[in-house]
What we know:
The chain has about 325 residues and is of the alpha/beta class. The protein has helices at about 1-15, 35-45, 65-70, 90-100, 125-135, 170-180, 190-200, 225-240, 245-255, 260-275, 285-305, 310-315; strands at about 20-30, 50-55, 75-80, 110-115, 120, 140-145, 145, 165-170, 205, 210-215. It is globular and about 55 Å long.
Amino acid sequence: MTTRITSELHRETESFVGGLRLALVTPARNEAAFIEGTLKSMVAQCMKPVRWVIVSDGSTDGTDELVMKYVQQRSWIELVRLPERRDRHFAGKVFAFNAGYERLKEVPYDVIGNVDADITFDPEHLAFLLRKFTEDPQLGVAGSPFVEGDLRYDYRFTSLTHVSGCCQLFRRECFEEIGGYVPIQIGGIDLVAVLTARMKGWRTRTFPEKVCVHHRKIGTAKQNRLMVAFRGGKGDYRLGMHPLWELSRTPYQMTKRPYIVAGGLRLAGFTWAMMTRAPKLISVEIVNFRRAEQMSRLRQFVGRFFQPSAERQGGVPTPGTRTL
């Protein structure tokens, strides 16, 4: 009986697509309310990763116990526990990811991914994304949009070349070339990784044929919505957003709750950071690259706006209800 179970587990981890093997890391900090959904989604995948390292970042809520139930049944899932820490910031996610990444040194893989501990997805999700890497040798980063209730990315403002950090897969060579994730306390680690990949010549792509369901509401873990908006504007500046791009987004931001105020406070945060010359958190090279992309997209958007309506409908992606 034991031999049969071991054989089944071995076959399960040998599954791959187009000769590509996938390894995953999931940083998890007090995710007991959500992580079992992620575990069930992963176990149900038609293509299993060769290794999935879940890094418990000092969890105290029973996260570890939930993960251990699955570790004991599946040899391709591993739990790494980090000591408890006081501070909660986005840089901590990078430190946790790197602890999992270290465990993959001796594991053979071709694509590495970061998967959040509070998402769910359909059984074909990973196989679908891995096929995209086999179809395009220059594809460096791939993922799918996330939905959160009735909220979605708005692709009038968020290009399909951006890949959300909820489920972000990298070709191994690309991840190594960009130097992995950069720890940034205010967030934007997924953004910087994707920008750097494109700057180095890799293609990056979100494939909207699939979606992840995000179960924890983003952006308000420790602050109210007004502070989130103001700090978000400051963060936009520090992460190199072009002032004209920020200004062009403001009318749209004002259509979201709290109406008018949210967009105004985000612009105020950006303006405050610009006036006080808040230090940038990314290199000048990445800032220039990001701003050049934004101006190119803004010109394209304005150009489409003045096209006849029939052409415009064909040229602009169907909008959702949210932009980040």
